[in-house]
Amino acid sequence: MKTKMAARISQDTSTDYRFKVQGFVSQRVADNMGLSLRYHEESERMITTLSGRVVDQAALIGILNTLYGLGFTLLSFESNQQ
Known about the structure:
Strand order of the largest sheet: 2-3-1-4
Structural class: alpha+beta
Strand content: 35-45%
Distance between the termini: 32 Å
Largest sheet: 4 strands, antiparallel
Helix content: 10-25%
Order of helices and strands: EHEEHE
Radius of gyration: 15 Å
């Protein structure tokens, strides 16, 4: 029996992403991940927004693992894929 997939996630297409984490991410860490950053406050807490082009799913998982490994709380992430 064959089943249809509603959507296929491409593993080879680069996509722009925006990651929002609680805390202060250093410029060095952002540079190592190839992302730009911006700081702001929300509800009296420091938020860092990292953004940039992510080349594939492996790179996306690498960024998420790096943020997790450094102890940051991921508040949200989104892609700008059309």
